[in-house]
Amino acid sequence: MPAPNDLLSVFETVIGLEVHAQLLTKSKMYCGCSAAYADAEPNTHVCPVCLGLPGALPVLNRAAIEYCLLTGLALDAEIPPACKLDRKNYVYPDLPKGYQISQYDLPLCVGGWLRFSSGGEERRAGITRVHVEEDTGRLVHRVDPGGAEESLVDLNRSGVPLMEIVGEPDLRSPEEARDYLIALRQVLRYIGASTGSMEDGAFRCDANVSVRRIGDPEFGAKVEIKNMNSFRAVERALRFEQERQQAALLAGETVAQETRGWIEDRGITVPQRTKEQAHDYRYFPEPDLPPLAVDESMVAGVRARLPELPATRRSRIAADYGLGPNEAALLTEERAVADVFEAAVGPPGDAASARVAANWIMNDLVGLQRQRGLPPETLPLDADQLRDLLAALAAGELTARAAKEVLPQITRGERPRDAARRLNLLSLDDDAAVRAAVDETVAAFPAAVADYRGGKTAAIGRLIGETIKRTGGRARPETVRAVMEDVLRKDNG
Amino acid sequence: MSLSIADVEHVAALARLGLGREEKERLREQLSSILGHIELLDEIDTAAIPPTAQVIELANVLRPDEVCPSLPRAAVLANAPRQVDGFFAVRAVLGGPGADTDPS
User: Fold this and answer.
1) B27 in any annotated domain
2) Do the chains contact at B100 and A227, CB–CB below 8 Å?
């Protein structure tokens, strides 16, 4: 069997992703029950609509529709003037109605594409459609005290607004699929439509993958993979599946078109239920919900809420502030972090001070954020605080070393300069104090002094460092150097 | 319109209905007769008529995203044949633990 690298010149992998994202609404899709199911006691966010009781009438949540439209606009999709909702019939205890209200042939958003970067290149992948539907209830499987298997049903999640984003089969490698997902999640977070959290189940991905010989006009048999709960799981599952299908084709076997589940701890995919009727959903128009006619004013209202999107912001920040692509990518990963950067630095001007701000955010602030277990969108300083810190550094009121010491001790809303004053860490602008520290150092390190005077001028570095240490990092290196040179010259001989 | 026994079995499986041999035959006749009645509509030329999903002339009925009180849990579970710790309890559903519960 050829090495994996050789296989890439023989086979092409074709991947399309389907993403389900929970929308950040307060109430459910078709009723006013709270959508915050995560910490609720079972079956406490449930009403006659959730239960599918006879006579209960669903009503569309305007915010959910608007989030879906916002997503469509962010992905350059068309918003058709007419859409409707449909019943997708299936019998399963996670939806007591016996059907899910979804969209079949007239979704809210059609077409579009996602811009993302992968392997250092800017890519774009097509979007087939974006539509709204409802989440299902939660099932807990267990063995009852009598030894019989049973399922426990909690309907709090049933009816929570979901959006399905179907991608075109435009992706060609597991890495590219991962990068597409990360970029899609970032767009949803930027527009505020979803938390995009895979671990909380707010962002789920199913993947369709097939392998064909390069040059073959037909796609290979499509395998759908489910049950991947992290970006890494998606990449690993796709890599496993790519290799499994390549091996089958090399051995002259045919790849079965089927649904497979990813088993995380074994690192493999296995066939899932294949009952034909599972796919016989008998869609028909939802008679309880009037159709939607999305007019231009509704689209315009939603479009006005569209922020600058990650890919645009990334390239703009790189160009405007003279930052590299990786720095710009890190700064714009979270919209709130990019906001802090731009607000603290102000309009583009001096590239050096933008670089200082970027470094403080990416190294010190993000480091402290992780240490404190803050969410990725929350930095330990707000824009005003960072602006104050940068100004103090630029004016020499704080040395970089003192600033690093002040940073973790700044209290909520406190100006870094006030914190430095409180902690007695502002730069020493008292020449006498610097002079005293220099004198102490000169007395304490006669060997280094002798080296310097003997012509090894590099020895001054050590003396400057020792002096700064004696001031608790508050002396500015350039001041110390000037005083030190002065002292060493004067006392020579 | 004449349905086969296989058609009846397929529909019954989708509705999770277990039918005896006589029931299947009786339903095959009844369903065939119902479909035959509806088939009368095929005689009308509908080429120029747009499909209608709704007969009520309403569109864009939307509600604001506001949380309303839910039912008390006792009321939610009142009709449940079995409940355990605030959950509905049902016979184990196909697949068991880790089964695919997302239809989409």
Assistant:
1) yes
2) yes
Q: How far is A238 from chain B (nearest CA, A)?
A: 18
- Total of domains in chain B: 1
Q: Which of chain B's residues have a Cβ under 8 Å away from the Cβ of A292?
A: 59-60
What residue ranges do the domains of chain A occupy?
4-301, 310-422, 431-492
Each residue's pLDDT tens digit, A459-476 = 888 888 888 888 878 888
Q: Write out pLDDT tens, residues B20-58.
A: 999 999 999 999 999 999 999 899 998 998 877 778 788
| A40 to chain B, closest Cα gap in Å | 11
CB contacts, 8 Å: A227 with chain B: 98, 100
pLDDT in tens, B65-101: 999 999 999 999 999 999 999 999 998 875 543 344 4
- The predicted-structure confidence for A325-352, as pLDDT tens digits, reads as follows 999 999 999 999 999 999 999 999 888 8
ipTM: 0.84
Mean pLDDT within A185-196: 97
Write the class of the CATH domain A431-492: mainly alpha
Within a domain: residue B10? yes
* pLDDT (mean) for A247-251: 93
Please indicate if any CB of chain A lies within 8 Å of the CB of B10.
Answer: yes
C-beta atoms of B66 and A291 within 8 A: no
3-state secondary structure chain A: CCCHHHHHHHEEEEEEEEEEEECCCCECCCCCCECCCCCCCCCCCCCHHHHCCCCCCCCEEHHHHHHHHHHHHHCCCECCCEECCEEEECCCCCCCCCEEEECCCCCCEECCEEEEEECCEEEEEEEEEEEEEECCCEEEEEECCCCCEEEEEECCCCCCEEEEEEECCCECCHHHHHHHHHHHHHHHHHCCCCCCCCCCCCEEEEEEEEEEECCCCCCCCCEEEEEECCHHHHHHHHHHHHHHHHHHHHCCCCCCCCEEEEECCCCEEEECCCCHHHHCCCCEECCCCCCEECCHHHHHHHHCCCCCCHHHHHHHHHHHHCCCHHHHHHHHCCHHHHHHHHHHHCCCCCHHHHHHHHHHHHHHHHHHHHHCCCCCCCCCCCHHHHHHHHHHHHCCCCCHHHHHHHHHHCCCCCCHHHHHHHCCCCCCCCHHHHHHHHHHHHHHCHHHHHHHHCCCHHHHHHHHHHHHHHCCCCCCHHHHHHHHHHHHHHCCC
The average pLDDT across A162-166 equals 98
pLDDT for residue A279: 63
